[in-house]
Amino acid sequence: MDQVSFRNEVYSVVASIPSGRVLTYGQIAYLVGRPQCSRMVGQAMHNASEERNLPCHRVVNSQGRLAPCWPEQRELLEKEGVAFRKNGCVDLKACGWEILKESIS
Q: Which top-rank group of organisms is this from (predicted)?
């Protein structure tokens, strides 16, 4: 899979994350068939053009931490009803998108 195809697949997954749910970089990497490439997902997200209008705020790290240089991310997630733990991380158990379970049922 070349870099352009990888990015397009990442953007397709991100575009499908429903409001009020989040996915991690690693989960996205797994879904596009490159489970060891979570950092590449982060790079693709960083390089996504605004014209794509992707819900990038719905992507967090494996502990539920937010992007360090994006203070608006928490506000955007809170507006969608995403729950946070006391340590400031997204509550992944409550708000993680269980895409595989949803597609089966």
A: Bacteria
Q: Is residue 38 part of a domain?
A: yes
Q: What is the pLDDT of residue 2?
A: 82
The vertex-101 CA angle with 95 and 105, nearest 5°, equals: 125
Residue 25 tokens, joined: 């970089």
Give residue-wise pLDDT tens across range 16-57. Answer: 999 999 999 999 999 999 999 999 999 999 899 889 999 999
Residue 9 domain flag? yes
CB 79 within 8 A of CB 57: no
| Catalytic (active-site) positions | 56
Please report, for the domain that includes residue 26, its CATH number. Answer: 1.10.10.10
d(CA 78, CA 16): 19
Number of domains in the chain: 1
Q: pTM to 2 decimals?
A: 0.91
